[in-house]
Amino acid sequence: MAKKKIIEKEESPPKKKKDSLLNQSLTLVEHFISYFELLFIYYQKIVEKKIQNGFIITVAILYAVFLKVLGTVFLSIAAYLYLVKLFNDPIIASVILGIFILVLSFVILIISLKKIT
Predict the structure, then answer these.
(1) What letter would DSSP give residue 89?
(2) Are 97 and 83 in contact (CB under 8 A)?
(3) How many CB atoms lie within 10 A of CB 93?
(4) I need a labelling partner for 59 at 20 to 30 A (CA). Which of 2, 21, 32, 101 fits?
(5) Are 101 and 76 in contact (CB under 8 A)?
(6) Residue of 98, 72, 100, 78 whose CA lies nearest to 86
(7) Rounded Cα gap, residues 107 and 7, in angstroms
């Protein structure tokens, strides 16, 4: 009987080592999983913040472009009405304003091409 107890005691510790090694490896895997879950949550918050900022910037740019176009239209109308009042002829005012806008657009195109190249 004493021999059986000694044999059982000798066999028991290796099983506990295997169990503890298995538990340690499972704990390590759980730590990795929790790390990647936390990392995913962190990146998700970053992406959401960038999307919100991008949306706000897009709205601001569209608003600025809208105001710029509206200002250009009103400025063109004001220039046309001034030219009509100056020359007392709407056709001459249209031609002068059209030529001015055409020349201005070509000048802006040439300047932008020089900056690109």
Answers:
(1) -
(2) yes
(3) 19
(4) 101
(5) yes
(6) 78
(7) 99
Q: Residue 39 is encoded by which pair of tokens? A: 């990392």
The string of pLDDT tens digits covering residues 45-95 is: 999 999 999 999 999 999 999 999 999 999 999 999 999 999 999 999 999
Q: How far apart are alpha carbons 50 and 69 in whole angstroms?
A: 28
Domain boundaries, the chain: 2-116
* Amino acid symbol at 14: P
Q: In the structure, what pLDDT confidence band is assigned to residue 5 with cuts at 50, 70 and 90? A: low
Tokens of 45: 């918050």
CA distances from residue 23 to 10, 31, 33 in whole angstroms, order as listed: 21, 12, 15
User: What is the C-alpha to C-alpha distance for residues 83 and 98, in angstroms, rounded to an integer?
Assistant: 12
Packing angle of the helix pair 2-87, 90-116 (nearest 10 deg)? 140
- Token reading at 7: 């044999």
